[in-house]
Amino acid sequence: MARKTKSRSAAQTAVKKRSADKSAARSSARKAVKAKARSTPARPAAKPSAKPAKKSIRPKQRIVVSHHREEDFKADGLRAYAKYRDLGIAAATHGLAQAHVIRLQGPCNPEEVSKLHFHDIEFQMVYVLKGWVKTYMDGEGETLMQEGSAWTQPPRIKHMILDYSDDVELLEVILPAEFKTVELKA
Questions:
Q1: Which residues, 6+ apart, have CB-to-CB distance to 31 below 8 Å?
Q2: pLDDT along the chain (186 residues), means of 10
Q3: Contact 135, 142 (CB under 8 A)
């Protein structure tokens, strides 16, 4: 029994010593930061302006729930060869983001589909829910995306769809909800 007490006591002493060393190191670091702050010259006071600075306040987002309904797929989106199911994100976020499920209509017609373009966006992510799609992205080349594949497209990256399966479905999330698409000469 005495032996256990002795080891426990030695362990406690070692822990206390380590804690003291750490406290000393933190204290030294604090002193160095305070000393640096004292040696930095003070900035001149800002002149009061007639207009207060405007604060960008986003409207409060709301909850949106979207359940699958076949009648929600509409041919009213960016591409004529696609049907889009709006998930209600743009309205719920007051234009901060957009999300939709896209069904590319088969069979793929490269003359209509394979057009080099870019989107003037801040963020774009695509996830393959079903089927496959073959894409081209500038700097990445051709890539086959299959069910379960996901990718991001940086702002203004040149890209195009090369081919897709007749049953392909994609989930796309874009920020902001409203954006410009620019078609390019290949």
A1: none
A2: 49 51 51 49 53 72 93 87 95 96 93 92 97 96 97 96 96 96 84
A3: yes
